[in-house]
Amino acid sequence: MNTNTENKDITANAAVPQADTSEPIDFTYIENARKPVGELGGTVLDDMNESHAALTEWGFAHLHFGSTVLDVGCGGGNALRLAMHQDPGAAFFGIDYSDVSIEKATAFNGEAVMSGRLSLKKASVSSLPFGDGFFDTVYSVESYFFWPDLPNDMREICRVLKSGGTFAIIVEMVAGDMSDRFEKITEHLHMNVLAPEQLAEVYRQAGFTDVTYDWDKEKGWLVMQGRKA
Question: CB under 8 Å, gap of 24 or more: what pairs does 57-60 form?
């Protein structure tokens, strides 16, 4: 599904929330979006948990998780909490390459971790610590911008999916339709932000089929899905 309503005055949150778009950009704060570290990184993750909740719920409304689910770039852990609430019967896994993110996500979902329903690991998307065909669903919220080698990393995700499994990306920054403020943030953080058809082509080249997306341009939200043949 492709929703494509025009609205050039988009002011949705970027990868890191900035409450007032008229204020100067705090680049020290924003740099923790790429890899949260220390106390400031923890604050950024707390803010992301709150500011990305509505986007995440909207994106998840498009998905059917299946029995095994992986969150790539799990950040502060709220996406995992929302996903577990949506599908109480599934087993969930999360990876992030930030120590602070794993600590925050663990604390945020302590009961699920203790019960064994959620497993969290420090790892890179470029080398996922799972066997071939392990997951029914893999998703990533506001993360692919920072991946070191997007084509390779997409193939790595395809590897760990079962045949017929789904990979979904949920974001609120889309190339060609961002404010000047978000363009500056993207440039400063060296973010690889793609337009929908560009991202869809990366999906196809990585081996995914049935690539579809829903783009709510009024809110600046995009969810894209592809299926492993």
Answer: 57/82, 58/170, 58/216, 58/219, 58/221, 58/223, 59/139, 59/141, 59/168, 59/170, 59/221, 59/223, 60/86, 60/139, 60/170
170 pairs with which residues across the strands?
141, 223
> What's the average pLDDT block by block, 10 residues per block, for the chain (229 residues)?
34 38 83 94 96 98 97 98 95 98 98 98 98 98 97 98 98 92 92 97 98 95 97
- Which residues, in sequence order, are bridge partners of residue 222? 171, 215
> Can you tell me the distance from the alpha carbon of 107 to that of 209, in angstroms, rounded to the nearest whole number?
37
Strand partners, 224: 169, 213
Q: What is the CA radius of gyration of the chain?
A: 16
Q: Provide the pairing of β-strand 135-141 with 221-228.
A: unpaired
State pTM to two decimals: 0.89
Entry field: residues in the chain? 229
